[in-house]
Design brief:
single chain; alpha/beta; Copper Amine Oxidase, Chain A, domain 1; Aminopeptidase; 7-stranded mixed β-sheet; 6-stranded mixed β-sheet
């Protein structure tokens, strides 16, 4: 149980600022409900019955101090004073204790920001809007705002107004998994998990400004299993999966501290030793996962062989190429190209998926670049613009295909 307690501590430590949130907006079943969020000495809390009702669920008292909370795709069994909940299959850390007052059950707010979106069905939490959105079993792409056109390129290649897609943005590493640390020789290192989260948040904001819906696999410094990241994307029927990472030099290189540049990967069998090295480095995050064994029952080879015949392979390659070209316009480092390798985080995302290494944190100059908020925003805008351009081209291809099919059918009649 030690790993559950540790995760519980991480969630609690990363909770939203105590005074930052006073109400949660819940959009479900065509309506919107405002649910109050209460500030307590132990952190933010929300009434279970009000939350469940807004989501179309219910609460039930089972026995003294024990309650069942039915939510979309998830049933939580909680008890007074317990920082954990039981589901039908596992024990879940809540990031704080449940408490009961005047007959009402109060849950830690991390149930809203983490537990329900991650373990429930068709629920998305929007951090910037403090909003839960509930979709059906096959979600309708509900827009998050008007398309913001900043120049003629965005107008030509941006997402189609009124028909937003859903993109899953994944910030690499998190929690006890720091990922890369650098630069080489620094006494004050930066950590990959912090850079990826900062950039991922900016990518999400840039995509939303283009009318594209977004969910993030993590919105704070917490550990999400590599296999769960793809699962989140699949359960929410994402159209694309973008995983953000920071590269690290091979210590066996002649001058590892000098290595710079950006590269974008898609899932396929690695063709170079360096691609294998990068995949192995990123896949090592599995060692932080409870009960994970990266050496047994590895589905990677089976899935890779299957994906060779899958259209996602071609689409992922095109998306990677589009992102790489956009980054080349703003990134000060060298263009290291589009590559392919067996990244575990991409294996379970059954959609076009790419992993972007936005630079080398082991390089002193590039480390400063990656840690600068203005430069992070430029990187994020480039990734978002490339994603919107890819989606627009994809829509045109699909539209052309439908037109050709209709024309062919008419000609045969």
């Amino acid at each position: 149980m030690w790993h559950l307690a540790a995760l519980c501590f991480q969630i609690a430590a990363a909770a939203p600022p105590q005074s930052a949130i006073s109400v949660l907006s819940v959009k479900a079943n065509g309506g919107e409900t405002q649910v109050p969020v209460e500030e307590t000495d132990a952190g933010l809390r929300i009434r279970a019955d009000l939350l469940a009702s807004a989501l179309g669920g219910s609460t039930k008292r089972v026995s003294l101090g024990h309650y069942t909370i039915a939510l979309p795709g998830l049933t939580l069994h909680v008890s007074d004073g317990n920082p954990f909940a039981k589901t039908d299959s596992t024990v879940v850390p809540l990031g704080g204790e449940v408490y009961v007052a005047e007959g009402h059950v109060y849950l830690p707010f991390t149930v809203v920001t983490d537990v329900v979106p991650r373990l429930g069905s068709g629920v998305i939490y929007d951090t910037s809007r403090v909003e839960l959105r509930v979709f059906g079993s096959v979600p309708t792409r509900v827009g998050t705002g008007d398309v913001l056109v900043t120049d003629s390129t965005d107008l030509e290649e941006g997402a189609t107004p009124g028909k937003p897609h859903l993109v899953v943005v994944d910030a690499g590493h998190g929690g006890p998994d720091n990922g890369m640390s650098g630069p080489i020789g620094s006494s004050h290192p930066i950590y990959e998990k912090d850079i990826t989260l900062a950039v991922a948040r900016k990518v999400a904001a840039a995509l939303r400004s283009r009318g594209i819906d977004v969910i993030m696999t993590r919105t704070r410094d917490t550990l999400i299993a590599l296999s769960d990241r793809g699962k989140i994307a699949n359960e929410h029927h994402g159209d694309l999966f973008l995983s953000i990472h920071v590269n690290a030099a091979n210590p066996e290189w002649h001058d590892p501290a000098a290595a710079r540049g950006f590269e974008t990967y898609f899932l396929a069998e690695a063709k170079t030793e360096d691609a294998k090295r990068v995949a192995q480095m990123e896949n090592e995050a599995v060692r932080f996962e409870a009960n994970a064994d990266g050496t047994k029952n590895d589905p990677l080879n089976f899935i890779l062989n299957d994906m060779k015949q899958n259209q996602h392979l071609r689409e992922s390659s095109e998306l990677a190429t589009t992102i790489q070209r956009r980054l080349a316009k703003i990134h000060p480092g060298p263009d290291r190209g589009v590559k392919q390798a067996g990244f575990r985080v991409l294996v379970t995302a059954y959609m076009p998926a790419v992993l972007v290494e936005i630079g080398f944190g082991t390089n002193a100059a590039e480390s400063r670049y990656l840690n600068n908020a203005v430069d992070q925003r430029a990187i994020a805008q480039s990734i978002a613009a490339a994603t919107a351009a890819y989606l627009a081209r994809y829509e045109r291809r699909i539209g052309a295909g439908k037109t050709a099919a209709i024309a062919g059918k008419s000609g045969n009649e």
